[in-house]
Every structure is written in structure tokens, then in C-alpha cells.
Amino acid sequence: MIRFTDTLAKEKVAFVPLKENQVSMYVCGPTVYNTVHIGNARPAVVFDALRNYFEYRGFKVTYVMNFTDIDDKIINRINEEGWDFDLITRTFIREYLRDMRHLGVRDANIHPRTSNYVGETVAFIEKLLSKGVAYVVDGEVFYDVTLYEGYGQLSHRKLEDMMSGARIEVDQRKRNPGDFTLWKPAKPGEPSWESPWGKGRPGWHIECSVMATSILGETFDIHAGGNDLIFPHHENERAQSESCTGKIFARYWLHNGMLQMNGAKMAKSTGNIISVREALKKYGRDAVRMFLFSTQFRSPIDYSVDRFEEWKKAANRVNESLARIEELFDGVPPYLKRESQWVKDKRDRFVEYLDDDFNTSKVLSMIFDMVKEINTTKDKERLTEAYWIIKGEFGDVLGLFTEVPSKKQQQSGSAFDDVMETLISLRAQLRSKKMYEQADFIRDSLSQKGIQLLDGPEGTKWQI
Ligand SMILES: [Zn+2]
How far, in Å, is the centroid of ligand 1 from the Cα of 252? Predict the structure, then answer.
């Protein structure tokens, strides 16, 4: 039985899907105005792996992730840099999908774009108005948060506290300080759509309600996203959806913790970011994914260069073991035709860990223990079993170990490292003998070939 810590219930609950053996999932996707960093990639990687796991456990999954292509951040970039509206959103949707594919994340079954759902959004808002939970002021439509009984339940906040907290800078047109915009009138020159309230565009929260219910139905199984979205985004999505349909919106709410650097959230505004592209280039897909799986997804995860280096080494250890097995068999070992108790035990533990709040970190520890075990054995049967269960099953669900480096690649890598080490040491010896001309010759000729030597307090490092 799969169990999750549900944000609304605030405890671990058993997952029982709406339709037997089927799962419908909606994950809040990116606002497409820029390329993404590793913090943005966490929900994409984790919830895509959860989708793999559902499939592994026999469920048919419908996985939806939206692209927010109407937003202030996009409009700001259009105004400041002269982008064409259609081109900026198309560019960053393409770049996002490309980064995610390199990271081993599959495309969603459906990637809806806000701009394709404006008609549905207008209809949704009209329904809210007809129910009396929304109101229009000067072409802007607001949602009245006091008219939904459950407001604050998801984020576990009291309405009174939210009201008093929001007293500063209150828009005088709002009935209550916590009311939020459903439809925003357009300023001159902004991308806009026709509506009964004049030209404008959907507010941020309404888009996800409209896309989720249009595609997955009024009630669906799992709504997921980063825990920075719980309030106000998901609280508002839930309020307006449930007051529109009169039904439960999402049956389970899953939220991932933030990626932090020295305790602060990774964000463009704080500058402490590493892009997905840069991380993949420096550390490789397995290391990046292992880093993201190294902490259970609800907890915050701390980013540091050292931690990435550690996971790169850890990923190499597993891949080297798998490569050694391939070497031993002169290729891929034969498929398992029957399974021993050893294999069954490992699989039972894999399922036990992932059933329990999708604890990927325990699975990684088990994989490392298995690698230690097989590194000391010559038993070909055990090695075959280990190969297929680690690479074939666990790796398949977690999107790891998809490419075992060939023997030749490994050798050329390490031989090159040795040559570089020799050159660096030779240069140091020359410098200590004050033979600067010869020492600089080494540095300059390497630099011409695109290899930089970096002198630091811990000696000289090199980079290509
Ligand atoms: Zn959303």
C-alpha cells in the first residue's frame, strides 16, 4: 500500500486512487520567461520519478504539467527587452523541455499552456460570479476568500491571522485584504484577451484550477508542486475550484521542500543559483539526480559544490561496478529467467521504501550496500542478478544508470587525469627552481588548447 504525507491531512495517509489502478496527477510547472535552475528541477525530477514508480506498481498514470505563459514576469521581459510574446514563451518552453529531457525527465502526457485556456478561464470565472463568491471592480475580478469555508485549511492558517497580516498596503477596492485577482485588466500594449469585463488576462491562481479540472476532471488524485506554492497559490486554487464545482478538487496534496544554499532558498533574486545545464555539464545526469533523491522529497535539501562532487563519485562507483560486470560477460549479462530469494528481498525493500512516502534516500543507501557486496564477489550468478535489479529495475524507476561508460571511455578519462597531474607537478617543480619561463610555457600551451590551470591555496586545479 502506497502512503504519502498529505499536506492537507498533515499526516501519512494511504493512497487510494479515484479509479482503480489509475492515477491522475497535476504538477505546477514553470513560468516560461527564463532557463531553469536546479531548484526548479526538483519537483520535475521527483514527481516524474513518482510517476515512474506508479507505473512500476501497475498504475496507468495521466500526468499533467502546465506552462504558465501569461504572467507579470513574462510581460516585464517583453517590455524591457522587446521580445515578441509568442517567441519568448515558445523559446523557454522548448528550453525547459530540453533541459528536463537531458536530466532524464519524461515529457508529461499533457503540457497545457495558460494561453490556450483563456476561454475556459472566462467560463470558470463567470461561474464563480454567478455563485456570488467573486466580484468585479473596474474591470478586475476578485475572489472573496471569506465565502469559502475551508480557506486556510491547506496551509494550516487561520483566516483572521491572514487578514490581519495583510492589512498593510491593502487594495481599497478589495472587500477583504486576502481576496485575490481572478481576472486582471490589461494595460496598454500588454498581451490581452476579450472578456465580459473588458480586455485583460487570467490571474495566476485561476489558470491551474482551469487547466487541472479541464483535463483531469473536477476531482482528481494528486496535486503536487514546491512547498513555496502552498500559500497562496494552492490555497487559492483549492478555494476557487471547490467553490466552483462543489466537489473535492485534489484528493492528495504533495509538496517538495526547497533547495537551499547555506540555509537560504535557491532563487534568481538571491543569486545563489546553479542552472540545470551547468550542473549536468559539471556533474552528469546520475550525480544530479542522486543529489535530488538523497533527501526524502518533503525535506529541504542543501546544495553545495562538495555535495555534488560526492554524488558524482558515488554515481561513478555504481557505474564502474556495472561496467565491470559488463566486462566480465563481454557485454550485457544474460537476462534473469528465474529470481533468487536475494533478488526478491532487494525488491521487497525497494517497494517498502518507496511505498513509504517515496523515500528515495533509503533506496540509494541500499544500492550502495549492494555495490559493496558485489564488488567483493566473483559469483557470476549474483553479479547477473545485481546488474539487472540495480540497472534494470531500480535504475529504470529512478532514471539512473542509463548509460554505463565503456571501458575505453573510463580508461581514457583516467589516463588523461594522470597526464594532467604529471604536467601540474612538473610545472610546480620548475617554479620552485625559479624556471618561470618553462613553467609559463606549460600553462600557456595548455591554455591555447582550452585547458586552464587554476592556482589556489590547495594547489593547482585544471578545467577544460
Ligand atoms: Zn499552479
Answer: 15
